[in-house]
Design a protein that fits this description.
The chain is α+β, with helices and mostly antiparallel strands. The protein has three domains: 2-252, no CATH class; 255-296, no CATH class; 302-344, no CATH class. It is built from nine helices and eleven strands. The chain has helices spanning 71-74, 88-94, 165-183, 240-252, 254-268, 276-287, 302-316, 322-331, 338-344; strands at 2-9, 15-29, 37-50, 61-68, 81-84, 112-115, 120-126, 129-139, 149-158, 189-196, 207-211. Strands 1-2-3-11-10-4-9-8-7 form a nine-stranded antiparallel beta sheet, covered by helices on one side. The chain is flat and about 100 Å long.
Length: 345
Amino acid sequence: MSILLLQVQTLDRQKVTCIDCVITSQISTQKQKEVPHQSITVFPHFVTVGDEHVDPELPIVTSIHFAIDDLSLLFNDFDAFGLVVNAKPLIDSVLAKRRLLRPVVTGEFPLIAYFSGRLSIIEVETDIGKLSVNHQPSHNMGGANGIFIKNRMRVNLEPDSPVSFGEAVDRMMIVTRFLSLIAGCRQGLHDIQLRTSSSEDQFLHSISVYWSYAPKGQRAKVNDLKPCPTDVPLNPIHRQEEFAYVLKNWIGRETNWRLSRVRYVNCLSKGNSYNTDRLIAAANMFDLLPRDAVPLPTVLPEALAEAQEECLKILMQCPKCLDRDSAISALSMNKYSNFLYFILL
């Protein structure tokens, strides 16, 4: 038994929405002269927590934000943060304003930590909305205990118009499959948040999303599968146009290629485990590709086609052996399927 939606409010006024719930147990009790008491235990596939409830049936999601395991390696913006070790030529200009308030004494070994200031790493307009990857740095003000600059990166997806909760999750998964492909290993999803048409109000914060069966990566189990920035096939930092071109075309073909892509990512999730099931799944992946995914057979000139037919007739009359079957297979590639010829053997 299942119920679609369950909405509650916590004591700190946070609104919790349980989406796609399954009832796991139900208890009803009644004692004499007492009001009947009923309790149920539910398993939600999604839980949202924020300043408002989420109706999954309505097109209200204006953006969805998330992170994956290896986001900082795939978008390796190496020069965004750094440390100036030999900072003696710069330290006086850095401290000029502070010295207007009080004297600041410098020493022989000044250090300067910096963030270049560019929050947006890349922005790409796609069929499912504007995709961007951003820095979100945080820092303290410094003091006797030192100073820090920490950073986390997030993927933001903004549809052209509001979409339903399920559609937003589906579009998020399209991007995640693409990032898993270029990473060479399945990426785990975490820190999912969304904004709705009503949460555009500056007083309302983004809504946190907790997914019971969110994709999980293999990094904790197989450390050597962690991608290296120099081995990633696309460089979104220094070759942004190429990255945007590939991403747009990937998303544009999602409808016809979805099944084979899901099969491929499922194979990646097995890490370094190669068994019979994985081999069959990998082979079936190519069967799920659309017909236009591979080059069509070429049409031979008339004279060459006649020569091909004559050679095949001669080979068909020869005794069966491996060399004879290989020759037939090679000759029949351009006109007939190998399967058809082996039926006729």
